[in-house]
Backbone:
């Protein structure tokens, strides 16, 4: 049989309640030139029953047979996928109506190694709290971006805003690029954050990337996810990695928020010296990123500078410079996000959606 153009991978673990709706969004496409790969991380709930209830030939179900770490499950899933391009989304995420159809057309007309897009963001109802519409992506003309330059700038800025970067999570990546990473390192994903690691491994093998100009997939934050589940979910996530050793330039006593972001680019820099060899990670800027994200006291960070310097360089003047740069950037972003606020206001005037399926359908209507 002809192999599909796109493999949409949904790694899952005991979230059959959200997976049900994610699968419905994934199937709401006209195309049959794609597959949906469900990589079940040894779930003990009704995950398999939910998948089989659809009885759709586009869905392929695989069970890992034992509990795997996130990286291992993603590698396992990619082994099963047959598409020329691979997209990974979460089991609480969704595909917008006709999103795969649009992407297939773009791939045929504008060849590239990586396709990425701005994504809607939705928070599922949680512990009596209503759902929340966090962000509505806009539309623009498709455009190209230099992955290599973006990686260099991120290293300079201390890994700032990397969740907006092209990566295998909510992006379509050529199997050729993933094969190059596999051949070079023995596997595709490393560190504890496979999505962030991919953001820094893709530029090593290609700078051919395209912003498709419209949302293809939406990001959902559910109670059991790392983004929506809070401290308890993050602790469970980290336990899966056992005695994983953080990069030696990081102190294990520092907040987990630092490790989860910075460990991945540092690992990639070590693994790909032919690309990153002439770059120095800007740790001073990294602390400015941490201060911006966490709200940590600036003076508290400055008072800790000698302890910080036991692990990596820290320059007060550079730290202050990037703090100011982030302040200017935040003001600019508030101005540019006006369109998203208007769209959210329009939706909020009606009944709030309770799941990712209702959310993507409602956004498509407006």
Residues:
């Amino acid at each position: 049989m002809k192999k599909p153009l796109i493999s949409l991978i949904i790694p899952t673990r005991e979230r059959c309640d959200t997976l049900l709706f994610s699968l419905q969004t994934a199937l709401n496409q006209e195309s049959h030139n794609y597959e949906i790969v469900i990589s079940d991380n040894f779930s003990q709930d009704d995950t398999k029953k939910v998948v089989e209830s659809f009885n759709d030939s586009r869905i392929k179900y695989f069970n890992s047979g034992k509990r795997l770490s996130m990286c291992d499950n993603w590698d396992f899933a990619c082994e099963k996928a047959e598409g020329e391009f691979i997209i990974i989304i979460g089991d609480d995420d969704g595909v917008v109506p006709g999103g795969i159809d649009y992407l297939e057309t773009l791939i045929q007309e504008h060849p590239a190694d990586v396709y990425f897009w701005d994504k809607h963001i939705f928070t599922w109802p949680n512990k009596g709290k209503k759902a929340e519409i966090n962000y509505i992506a806009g539309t623009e003309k498709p455009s190209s971006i230099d992955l290599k330059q973006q990686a260099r700038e991120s290293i300079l800025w201390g890994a700032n805003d990397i969740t907006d970067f092209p990566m295998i999570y909510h992006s379509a990546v050529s199997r050729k690029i993933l094969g190059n990473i596999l051949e070079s390192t023995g596997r595709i994903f490393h560190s504890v954050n496979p999505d962030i690691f991919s953001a820094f491994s893709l530029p090593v093998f290609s700078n051919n990337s395209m912003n498709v100009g419209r949302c293809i997939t939406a990001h959902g934050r559910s109670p059991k996810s790392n983004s929506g589940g809070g401290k308890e979910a993050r602790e469970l996530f980290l336990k899966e990695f056992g005695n994983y050793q953080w990069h030696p330039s990081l102190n294990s006593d520092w907040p987990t928020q630092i490790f989860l972001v910075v460990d991945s680019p540092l690992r990639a820099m070590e693994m790909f010296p032919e690309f990153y060899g002439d770059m120095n990670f800007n740790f001073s800027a990294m602390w400015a990123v941490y201060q911006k994200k966490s709200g940590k006291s600036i003076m508290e960070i400055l008072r800790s500078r000698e302890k910080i310097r036991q692990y990596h360089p820290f320059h007060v003047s550079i730290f202050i410079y990037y703090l100011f740069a982030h302040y200017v950037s935040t003001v600019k972003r508030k101005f540019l996000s006006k369109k998203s606020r208007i769209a959210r206001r329009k939706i909020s005037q009606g009944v709030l959606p309770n799941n990712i399926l209702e959310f993507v359908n409602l956004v498509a209507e407006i």
